[in-house]
Amino acid sequence: MADQRERVLVVDVANVVGSRPDGWWRDRAGAAQRLLAGLRTLPGAGVAGPDGDPGALVLVEVVAVLEGAARSADPAAHPGLRVVRAQRDGDAAVVAEAGRVVDAGAVPLVVTADRGLRERLPAGSRTTGPGWLNALLGR
Predict the structure, then answer these.
(1) Beta-carbon neighbour count of residue 101 at 10 Å?
(2) What distance in Å separates the CA atoms of residue 63 and residue 17, rounded to the nearest whole number?
(3) Per-residue b/e over 57-81, b at no fewer than 16 CB within 10 Å?
(4) How many domains would you assign to the chain?
(5) How far apart are CA 113 and CA 52, in angstroms?
(6) Which domain holds residue 18?
């Protein structure tokens, strides 16, 4: 892909899992585990960016934020995939991770449909909804 740009993917796991009516509410940790398994394939991948960030992107790191019952999901270790277990507020953890990425001089691409969360993200953050990630992962 020509003109690739680097992004750190920050995933609001609860929002992405909740975007599909596949019974996730019966087993939140299991649903998160399945999403994490897909996310393991993305670090280092070149992908087509979403509508809000078009063009070719390279996902140099993937950060998955877990909250509530999903925090017990236990993904296999994988280089480039970092799991953050929010102690209380998952949205605050997503904002903090996006801030960490911006402070490091990189560009976060935050996956969430939560408008309130999007408004709290630091300047320089890019956003997209769960549909883009679900399509990318074939979910």
Answers:
(1) 24
(2) 15
(3) bebbbbbbbbbeebbebebeebebb
(4) 1
(5) 13
(6) 5-137
Q: What is the pLDDT of residues 1-48, one digit of tens each?
A: 334 589 999 999 999 998 888 887 788 888 999 999 999 999 999 999
- Chain segment 43-86, per-residue pLDDT in tens: 999 999 998 777 889 999 999 999 998 988 887 767 789 999 99
Place of tokens 């408004």: 119
Task: Tell me the CATH number at 97.
Answer: 3.40.50
Cβ neighbours of residue 55 under 8 Å, at least 6 residues apart? 3, 5, 48, 49
The candidate with the shortest Cα–Cα distance to 90, out of 9, 14, 19, is 14
